[in-house]
UniProtKB/TrEMBL annotation:
It comes from the Bacteria. This is 7-cyano-7-deazaguanine synthase. The keyword Zinc applies. It comes from Methylophaga nitratireducenticrescens. Pathway: Purine metabolism; 7-cyano-7-deazaguanine biosynthesis. It catalyses: 7-carboxy-7-carbaguanine + NH4(+) + 2 ATP = 7-cyano-7-carbaguanine + 2 AMP + 2 diphosphate + 2 H(+). Its EC number is 6.3.4.20. Binds 1 zinc ion per subunit. Belongs to the QueC family. The gene is queC. Its cofactor is Zn(2+).
Length: 222
């Protein structure tokens, strides 16, 4: 029987690398993206394109209005910082990964999938609390308490294959797997054409990753 996995696919560099790794590990992949009230939708278009190119079995876009609660520069009328911030930055979206993983968990149960892949990283990242290994471990425990499939003996695993990789290591791994990173959108304030600002946290980590990997940066900048 073919093993199945649900992949959280944002349209950015990390999530498409997680998708490629899941495919390389022999999973039949089902990708899920979220229209959650973020400032721009170009990342959703990128995710749809990347899912199609990867040949996923199905791709879903789920609508959730996190803008209704705000509290983040990505979902509220707050400027995206263009300099390095101390502590947890204002681009952190309250409960985002908890909500996303919960919905992915529901779909995984419907599909009889054994794994959920998420591209979180605890090395070159902005310090978000819901990207830490402790969070992933805790959510996996929750998943196997909260689902019918787990109670009946079919565990669901939360896989974070990028957790301990540097951005340069992620870029190298994805390049080995044939990813065209020019088609990804990582920027927190990309324009309508998906071009990056080059200044936000996400852009800075991404650009440094290509530099450290010794690879040309294919990102389209404004």
């Amino acid at each position: 029987m073919t093993k199945r996995a649900v992949i959280l696919l944002s349209g950015g560099l990390d999530s498409v690398t997680a998708l490629a790794i899941a495919k390389a590990e022999g999973y039949e992949c089902f990708s899920i993206s979220f229209d959650y009230g973020q400032r721009h939708k170009t990342e959703l278009l990128a995710a749809e394109n990347l899912a199609k190119k990867a040949g996923v079995a199905s791709h879903k876009v789920i609508q959730i209005d996190l803008r209704a609660i705000g509290g983040s520069a990505l979902t509220d009328d707050i400027d995206v910082p263009e300099t390095e911030q101390q502590g947890i930055p204002i681009t952190y979206v309250p409960a985002r990964n908890t909500v996303f993983l919960s919905i992915a968990l529901g779909w995984a149960e419907v599909l009889n999938a054994e794994a959920i892949f998420v591209g979180v990283n605890a090395v070159d990242y902005s310090g978000y609390p819901d990207c830490r290994p402790e969070f992933i471990d805790a959510f996996e425990k929750l998943a196997n308490l909260a689902t019918k499939s787990a109670v009946e003996g079919s565990a669901i695993y939360i896989k974070a294959p990028l957790m301990y990789l540097s951005k340069s290591e992620i870029v190298k791994r994805g390049t080995e797997l044939g990813i065209d990173y020019s088609e990804t959108v990582s920027c927190y304030q990309a324009d309508a054409q998906g071009r990056a600002c080059g200044q936000c946290d996400s852009c800075r980590f991404r650009r440094q990753g290509f530099i450290d990997a010794g690879l040309a940066d294919p990102t389209r900048y404004q």
